[in-house]
């Protein structure tokens, strides 16, 4: 750079020395050359100044610390912008710049070791917003198989004679939550590589949540504990029967309410399908001829039945009415969602397959906090 600057200055001096001897055509050529030399000289001087300032750690008189190993290490953390960009660009099949390559030094397999913090937060937030059942239950994030102690038999405080003892001991139960694999795949056309990073993150998050929420909600309600599914609420219950096989009556609803102890009713809700609600329940009236269902729709509840909110969930079989306090169902994410990419399946179609995987499990903590009724088919 310095050598070229000296060459430019020497040439400009040479042109000044011969200016009086130049013809008209030569003068025009000399002027154009001088303009080019001036432009190049200014550009080189700026570059030289920047290099000088950076070597001193200063810009515009402000002192900047040179990047330390700790700073460079921070870009590999899941909550850094560099890591997020690198993670998503690699999923999209885009090239990484040098900083993004450094951010992926902890990478394993096809993407980073963990999903970026911002991306997983978006997924969890969307799951809570868009899922029907998951937001109602107790959610945990314990990164291992876990045994949770649950209160069993609880005896009242007793009066005893002096020197006497209360021989009735309380009991403690437990639930064990393991690591069950939740796997879903998403197929996307090759045009995804043309997206911006933010657009791709929104797209893959929306598609992932669409797939995962249905599987999780269904497992919480209908899970059997087999085929790697969690134990659902219905598995823990013995269904009550309606008084008649033709449909629900007022006394049936009272029987459901009577089956759940008062201690669990604060926060309790009804869950049923759309068809069950509007064909069976909404038409029930009390002795005064007033409907016991009150339509009060909001973002989560369809209305109220005898004062308790109703959640409509169409994967609960028609004819079933579930009532209880869903806080007594525990769902644990042992390992949050991970995303992997495979292009081999789309060799002919140009599609890319993304696989999402999480480790989770769920189980009812106290069955007495729930009750379920179904139509009496044996009448």
Alpha-carbon Rg, integer: 35 Å
Overall tally of domains:
3
Number of β-strand runs: 15
**Average pLDDT metric:** 81
Please mark out the parts with pLDDT under 50 across 5 or more consecutive residues, or reply none: 107-112
In sequence order, what are the helices and strands, one letter per element? Answer: HHEEHHHHEEEEHEHEHEEEEEEE
Question: How many separate helices?
Answer: 9
Q: Architecture of the largest domain, according to CATH?
A: 2-Layer Sandwich
- The CATH homologous superfamily of the largest domain: Major capsid protein gp5
CATH topology of the largest domain: Major capsid protein gp5 fold
Basic shape? elongated
User: Within the largest sheet, what's the order of strands?
Assistant: 7-15-12-8-11-10-9
Strand content: 15-25%
Q: Helix- and strand-based class?
A: alpha+beta
- What level of helicity do the residues show? 25-40%
Q: Terminal Cα separation, in Å?
A: 97 Å
How would you sum up this structure, described in words?
It is built from 9 helices and 15 strands. By secondary structure, the protein is an alpha+beta fold. The protein folds into 3 domains: 2-63, no CATH class; 76-110, no CATH class; 115-379, Major capsid protein gp5 fold (2-Layer Sandwich). The chain has a 7-stranded mixed β-sheet with strand order 7-15-12-8-11-10-9. Strands 3-13-14-6 form a 4-stranded mixed β-sheet, with helices on one face. It has a two-stranded antiparallel sheet with strand order 1-2. Strand 13 (329-342) and strand 14 form a beta hairpin. Helix 1 packs antiparallel against helix 2 (24-56) and helix 6 packs across helix 7 (197-222). The radius of gyration is 35 Å and the shape is elongated.
């Amino acid at each position: 750079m310095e050598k070229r600057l000296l060459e430019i200055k020497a040439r400009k001096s040479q042109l000044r020395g011969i200016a009086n001897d130049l013809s008209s055509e030569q003068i025009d050529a000399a002027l154009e050359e001088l303009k080019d030399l001036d432009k190049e000289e200014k550009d080189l001087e700026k570059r030289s100044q920047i290099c000088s300032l950076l070597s001193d750690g200063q810009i515009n008189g402000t002192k900047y610390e040179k990047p330390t190993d700790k700073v460079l290490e921070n870009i590999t953390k899941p909550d850094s912008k560099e890591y997020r960009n690198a993670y998503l660009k690699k999923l999209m099949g885009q090239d990484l710049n040098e900083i993004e390559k450094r951010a992926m030094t902890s990478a394993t397999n096809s993407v980073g070791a963990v999903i970026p913090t911002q991306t997983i937060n978006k997924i969890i937030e969307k799951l809570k917003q868009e899922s029907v059942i998951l937001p109602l239950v107790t959610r945990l994030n314990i990164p291992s198989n876990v045994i949770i102690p649950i209160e069993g038999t609880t005896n009242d405080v007793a009066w005893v004679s002096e020197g006497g003892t209360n021989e009735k001991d309380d009991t403690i139960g437990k639930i064990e939550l393991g690591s069950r694999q939740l796997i879903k795949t998403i197929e996307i056309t090759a045009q995804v590589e043309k997206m911006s990073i933010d657009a791709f993150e929104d797209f893959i998050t929306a598609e992932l949540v669409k797939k995962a929420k249905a599987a999780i909600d269904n497992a919480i309600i209908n899970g059997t504990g087999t085929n790697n599914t969690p134990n659902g609420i219905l598995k823990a219950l013995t269904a009550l029967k309606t008084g008649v096989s033709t449909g629900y009556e007022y006394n049936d609803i009272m029987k459901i309410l009577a089956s759940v102890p008062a201690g669990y009713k604060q926060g309790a809700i009804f869950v049923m399908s759309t068809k069950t609600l509007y064909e069976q329940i909404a038409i029930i009236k009390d002795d005064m001829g007033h409907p016991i269902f009150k339509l009060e729709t909001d973002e989560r509840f369809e209305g109220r039945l005898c004062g308790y909110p109703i959640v409509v969930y169409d994967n609960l079989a028609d004819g079933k009415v579930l009532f209880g306090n869903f806080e007594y169902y525990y769902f644990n994410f042992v390992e949050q969602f991970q995303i992997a990419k495979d292009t081999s399946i789309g060799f002919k179609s140009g599609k890319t397959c993304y696989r999402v995987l999480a480790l989770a499990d769920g189980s009812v903590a106290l069955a007495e906090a729930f009750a379920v009724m179904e139509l009496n088919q044996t009448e």
